């Protein structure tokens, strides 16, 4: 809506509820708060992106480690299976 006008019968003048200084102060405060919120949002976004990248790197490292260990385990099982088959054949 519109700014309310008040009539002051003592001076017989109409004056506005908000003066230019009020608007300037309000705009300055709003600008400052907006700037702080934007800055906070940018930091939060950067932190989230960093967490995503760290998690991705950690996941890839663990996946590589597990894949390597599984490969070693498959090799060990194949080796011992071969040894058992050799012993069974030697007994027969």
Automatic annotation (TrEMBL):
Belongs to the tektin family. InterPro entries: Tektin-like, Tektins. The keyword Glycosyltransferase does not apply. It comes from the Eukaryota. The keyword ATP-binding does not apply. GO terms for biological process: cilium assembly; cilium movement involved in cell motility. This is Tektin. Keywords: Cell projection, Cilium, Cytoplasm, Flagellum. One of its GO terms (cellular component) is axoneme. It is found in: Cytoplasm, Cytoskeleton, Cilium axoneme.
């Amino acid at each position: 809506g519109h700014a309310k006008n008040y009539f002051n019968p003592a001076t017989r003048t109409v004056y506005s509820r908000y003066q230019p200084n009020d608007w300037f102060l309000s705009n300055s405060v709003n600008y400052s708060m907006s700037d702080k919120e934007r800055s906070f949002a940018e930091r939060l976004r950067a932190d989230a992106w960093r967490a995503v990248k760290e998690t991705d790197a950690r996941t890839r490292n663990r996946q590589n480690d597990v894949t390597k260990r599984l490969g070693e385990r498959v090799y060990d099982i194949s080796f011992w299976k071969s040894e058992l088959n050799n012993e069974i054949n030697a007994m027969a």
